[in-house]
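Structure ticket #2291
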Amino acid sequence: MERAPTARLEFSPPAPDPLFGRVLVGVDDTPESVVAAAQARALTPADGHLAVVAVAETYFAAQAGAAARFAEGGVETETADVLEQACELAEPDERRFTAGRLVDVLRAECRRSNATLVAVGARPQRRLSAAVFGGHEVELLHGASCALLVARPGWGPAKPSRVVVGVDGSETSQAAESVGRALSARLGCAIVPVVALAARPGAEVLRLEREDAVVAPGELVDAVARAADERTLVVAGRGHDAERIVYATRCSVLVLPTEAGDA
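Resolution: structure written out below.
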């Protein structure tokens, strides 16, 4: 299969909503990539810029031994097919096809194009297996310089039914709540701040400060997981139990960049 030449992705100037101004979707040969593209489009404002880069991870083909060349062609074909499906739903401003390692390509593109958000599909694996076998969402959680959307089926390309954010009074959760409220207002969906009684002694004060807060027993991660269903988008700050939240919930999770999400 003839591969399109590698080219740098160029983004338009930042949109007024800076977190969603320059969105980059990573596509591989899995159907979860299509979910990521559809949800990224739903979150990108009208004046934002959406780019899709498909990465054929042909290095896996080496494990096929004598059939490596045949396997490599299969990976390229499947990735190209997924790219077409993703672009049909997302209607990106830019698209590109290349080969390599998905995480490495996305990190490089984020740095070169100053992407504000990268979106990937969550593969059906638990946190432990992802950490052991190198799930791309785990690697990007620890290495991406921008916001990260870990997408799961349940909503899109329309919008989530509600935005859920855990609140514990920290600067990290305050940043996540601010982003969550702004996003819910733009999308026209409900916002659900979740206060966990075990989070800290001031939990009751946090509840009283918010008429729309949901109070739940236990730890914050568990409380957020109980408040979220498949049609929810959870917003969390990186370092604010973000990795635990990604694998404790059944829905898509938006993890803020370090400068916006860490205390």
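Closing remark: The chain is about 40% helix and 20% strand.
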